[in-house]
Amino acid sequence: MPSLSDKQSVQQVSELLGYESVSAFITMFKKVMKKSPMKYMSDLNQLN
């Protein structure tokens, strides 16, 4: 998810991808990635 790793907010990414709401994006993200966007970003930060 390059946009999240580029430090864009979850809201910005959800809008960029055309979601009508942030909650709809978060729901999809959790289904696909098995973690929330915030957890994903936190995990990325720990790797750097």
Automatic annotation (TrEMBL):
Residues 1-43 form the HTH araC/xylS-type domain. Gene3D superfamilies: Homeodomain-like. It comes from the Bacteria. The keyword Transcription applies. The keyword Magnesium does not apply. Keywords: Transcription, Transcription regulation. This is HTH araC/xylS-type domain-containing protein.
